[in-house]
Specification:
The protein has 138 residues and is α+β, with helices and mostly antiparallel strands. The protein has 3 helices and 7 strands; from the N terminus they run αββββαββαβ.
């Protein structure tokens, strides 16, 4: 069952937060990728392109684990366990929003011709890790 994200977690995700996303290959082995992170409401978001391994894995098996470290406090990190959904609407605008945040440019500059962008939204079931002053996230 999805949980509400604490405001302290949302604040980190709205900053320049890099995440390490684990998805599961068909044989069950983990696949790990670093992505730019975002948040909307109580969902953790990232953006990817159609045809990559992450969305293929998530469409088959929506379970995911994402680790995010607070860039302003390296002792603070969170580990999200949740269920992902992959969609196309709004993905182009979303990657441009992330490019503005992470690269200070208006348009995502690494787009390939014909590339279809996707948003991955994760409903979080559990948060692990430690927050300010090494306390579990509440």
């Amino acid at each position: 069952m999805a949980i509400a994200l604490p405001q302290s977690v949302k604040k980190i995700l709205q900053d320049k937060a890099y995440g390490h996303v684990i998805t599961f290959n068909p044989g069950g082995k983990p696949q790990l990728t670093m992505v730019w992170m975002d948040v909307e409401g109580d969902e953790v978001l990232f953006n990817t392109a159609d045809g990559r391994l992450k969305p293929r894995n998530l469409r088959r098996d929506p379970r995911t684990i994402i680790s995010v470290q607070d860039r302003n406090d390296p002792q603070s990190y969170m580990v999200f366990h949740g269920t992902a959904s992959v969609s196309e609407p709004g993905a182009d605008q979303h990657i441009d929003k992330l490019a503005k945040r992470f690269l200070s440019v208006d348009k995502y500059p690494f787009r390939r011709p014909g590339e279809k962008r996707l948003i991955v939204r994760v409903k979080v079931d559990r948060i692990g890790g430690y927050g300010p002053k090494m306390q579990p996230w509440a």
